[in-house]
Amino acid sequence: MTLAQRVKSPTPKFFRKVRNIGLVIGAVGGALLAAPVALPAIVTTIAGYLATVGVVASAVSQTTVKD
Questions:
Q1: What confidence score (pLDDT) does residue 65 get?
Q2: Which end of the chain is more exposed for a tag (fewer CB within 10 A), N or C?
């Protein structure tokens, strides 16, 4: 099965929830990184991790398929 076929195949219900949560986490991280105000370094570091975790969780969840 190719990657394109995996992405187009139906996703199990649990992984749809994980994908949506990952999208929200990624969006929060991206919003913090793009904030127009100066944030402390620790907040910027955590925002980078949040964005990364959100993108990875969404990508992995999207490629799971039902048998």
A1: 87
A2: C
